[in-house]
Amino acid sequence: MPRTPLIAGNWKMVLDHQQGTLLVQKLDWTLKDARHDYSAVEVAVLPSHPSLRTVQTLIEGDKLSIRLGAQDVSAHEAGAYTGEVSAAQLAKLGVTYVAVGHSERRQHHGEDDAVVRAKTARALAGGLVPIVCVGEPLEVRKAEQHVEHTVGQVTQALTGLSAEQVAGLVLAYEPVWAIGTGEVATPQDAQEVCAALRSAVAEQFDQASADAVRVLYGGSVKPANIASIMQQPDVDGALVGGASTDAGDFAAIVRFRDHPA
Ligand SMILES: O=C(CO)COP(=O)(O)O
Fold first, then answer.
1. Model-wide pTM > 0.80
2. Residue ranges of domains in the chain, CATH in brackets
3. In the chain, fewer beta carbons within 10 Å around the N or the C end?
């Protein structure tokens, strides 16, 4: 079964709920104009938590095919965890995807591999599809340890899951040095790590789950570079930051098949 590409927009802490709904409306109009087939290239947006409800109301009310994602989820199931948002609460809001272990959370919120593993398991138990983010900082890349580093992060995050669970989730390779810097990894850099992550899944679980798991690239993805990245055999989509907060740019990324590589 070929893997369906996924283009997901991580809005980070950038758009409020009004800007977010406007963006989703514009995105949908633009993609409808282009007669976009959402079953051929899946599209998701990841608003901040306070915007989820408004964006979900729009998606449901207008029967849009854009999927909803969240940027984080609690490692706890329910109860006295002030400020946390549970997987069940997100699922009830119509959320499909949730980013787990984004490098900004690892860096600024002290999330280590154990937390990422707990959040991944909790997301799955709550009926969400985790987008497990991994990526190396610049010094690790310079030391040519990026494959070991990212494979280690994935192995840790997926420990304890079943092959079936792994087959259904999403991995995202986001080199830290390429996030928000304009410094995009080359298509070959993206392919090298995405292929290594897939092989690691085959080794830790089985070939069927490795063939099914989707691996995204993230880090300064723009309309001008997406087509060559998507040509790589082990890259199944993109996790887009800055460019996803502009409806025109994000639509152009979703429509990567329209541009030359
Ligand atoms: O962190 C990212 C997506 O999760 C990438 O961000 P940029 O596309 O802004 O580099």
1. yes
2. 6-258 (3.20.20.70)
3. N
